[in-house]
Amino acid sequence: MHHVFLWHWLAFAAFVAGLLALDLTVFHRRSRETTLREAGLWTLVWCLLALAFDGLVWRWLGRHAAAEFLTGYVIEWSLSMDNVFVFAMIFAYFMVARKYQYRVLFWGILGAVFMRLSFVLVGAQLLRHFEWVSALLGLFLVYSGARLCFHGESKPHPEKNVVLRLARRLLPVSSGSTGDRFFVREAGRWCMTPLMVVLVVIETTDVMFAVDSVPAILGVVNKQAGYFTFIVFTSNVFAILGLRALYFLLAAVMDLFRYLNYGLSSILAFVGLKMLAEYFYQPADGGHLVPAWASLLTVVTLLTVSILASLWSQWRQPRLTQPAATPHAGPRPADHLVGGPSA
Fold first, then answer.
1. pTM to 2 decimals?
2. Which site from 28, 68, 264, 318 is most exposed, i.e. has the minimal number of CB atoms within 10 Å?
3. Where are the domains of the chain?
4. Which residues of 179-196 are buried (b: 16+ CB within 10 A; e: fewer)?
5. What is the largest CA-CA distance in the chain?
6. Cα–Cα distance between 71 and 174 in angstroms, integer?
């Protein structure tokens, strides 16, 4: 049985801290708009880093751990696509300029890393000490999948955010343009900037996503293995690190993925049913009833089918509803607003 020691955690923490520091101080030192080409390149970089780490896990902990890491990474990465839609609505609600959105997401991701660590540590201890928690999480994931399938993802309502209302009571919000700063001094007192308000909403919204994604990853990693907590956390973090690039890559085309919620709901339901089955029929070796490779194949298949079905539907729709061509049709009056600062 392979075990993970404290120095492994410290080495991974130093690696992530180095990546974030390099990102903030070198590659995105100044606030600017992220192009589609740049977002695509960074998405590829983060995916390659995750695959390279998975290769290291294979060599170090074995193929089962590598398959579980990759399954957890794909689950978190796919659920992150839902985050993109919600974050886009939040930015549009507060009319955040595109050149400032990356900075908000950077600090939002940093906060998410610490939040996910606490979720993983607590969840892992509960699963190891209370068997019934596995069944409870399984039922919750099945419920979450059904809710997402039949009701979709609810729109955010920042004005009802309890944490934001509390923050506004503690610190006033500044007036006027403050650039990319989160706090400023006005009339001799510290004030939150509108950008800080957006960051608070992003952070608290991510908690709701973590409630679904962390139990889903807990359900695909062998809780009896010495690497259980480490694999759950690292797979989660690698997906979270690539969320910023994924946002700028997909935010403008999320309408294309009309069936994505069905794929995501199926993934949640699959993991939930798997946890329930393993609770009532625990394999003798303490492992998984469904092999790690089978879980990975199922998750990838569900996600791929939902994306391909969405693209196929989008491709067929213009052919079925294409209007007759209008000669001398000029541009729409609002065409110059597409892709503006608050898009």
1. 0.81
2. 318
3. 28-318
4. eeebebeeeeeebbbbbb
5. 73
6. 44
